[in-house]
Amino acid sequence: MKGTLRYLIGAAGPSGFGSNSTAEQVTEDCSSLISPHLTAIITGATSGIGAETARVLAKRGLRIVIPARDLKKAAEVKERIQKESPKSEIIVMDLDLSSFASVKRFCSAFLSLGLPLNILINNAGKFSDSLEFSEDKFEMTFATNYLGHFLLTEILLERMIETAAETGIEGRIINVSSIIHSWAKKEAFQFNDMVKPKSYNGTRAYAQSKLANILHAKEVARQLKAMNARVTINAVHPGIVKTGIIRDHKGLITDSVFFLASKLLKSTAQGASTTCHVALSPQLNGTSGKYFADCNESSCSVLANDEKEARKLWKQTRTLIYKRLCQPSSPKPV
Ligand SMILES: NC(=O)c1ccc[n+]([C@@H]2O[C@H](COP(=O)([O-])OP(=O)(O)OC[C@H]3O[C@@H](n4cnc5c(N)ncnc54)[C@H](OP(=O)(O)O)[C@@H]3O)[C@@H](O)[C@H]2O)c1
Fold first, then answer.
1. Catalytic residue numbers?
2. Residues 18-45: what's their mean pLDDT?
3. Which CATH architecture has domain 20-239+270-323?
């Protein structure tokens, strides 16, 4: 009750920001701290929260890489950003997160540019009403929201660790999750069922993929700490924003809920604020493995906090990916 009230009035939390804060507001004081060569990759930046995140981070002087499956849309976003911030450097590259081959191709192309990598924002997301399978024959929502980002992070991590060591600037990974992760039930959170479901429910698949995003952040944070790497990884809930992911869906969690909860909706500018805060705020130096909402650390579900579940999911995912890519399937020891 108290939390809902705080949300509705936009009360600031310990960070000094709250549900009403916009991405521009939370990054206003960060400009002087940003090295001109800071590079960020933002997935899903062709629309919604990702496009706003890219616009604001470019405005703050970051070099932005937009990997996209729709290059025309990405070029339009680039043009809009450069109209507003003419000096900004925006690189558009091809990536379909639902395909392991495409993720590998994107990573090779990015790494061959020889650029540093300071920030990786795993933001792209999909909500599918009906059962679809990816090119690799895995359930599409799980493949796009979780498996693709897992592989992307895995391949780019070395460059992030190197960049942080060379520059002394902490690298940051942000997994964009959702409060809906808490709808996922432990009994149904079974890896084999998630990759190849026997029965399908779109909301359940989405919730499970968003839970996997948090567990991924928690386990990778643990591994990075064990390696003393200067890279952090956190998960965020951006708030409920009427973007493409919602507009495309008529029915249960959309029309009625949105009608009743219209007061709870955030603007896109507000929806991008938690990601931007976690990406740039000096308050969060060294903070890793946490979950944020409304620009403040928040609590996630019991299942999302389960370390054993996080480690198990990481091992199962790594084994699946490497088996699919015909490479050694044993997880690296940490
Ligand atoms: N909106 C909300 O209320 C809300 C609430 C909680 C969490 N989230 C999370 O916030 C993130 C951003 O969502 P949004 O609301 O901004 O939705 P959106 O406007 O629909 O944006 C989704 C983005 O993901 C990209 N994408 C989807 N499938 C992809 C694929 N296979 N390969 C590469 N890119 C792909 C889309 O690219 P295309 O342009 O090619 O489609 C688009 O750029 C998502 O992770 C979502 O789960 C949103």
1. 200
2. 87
3. 3-Layer(aba) Sandwich (3.40)
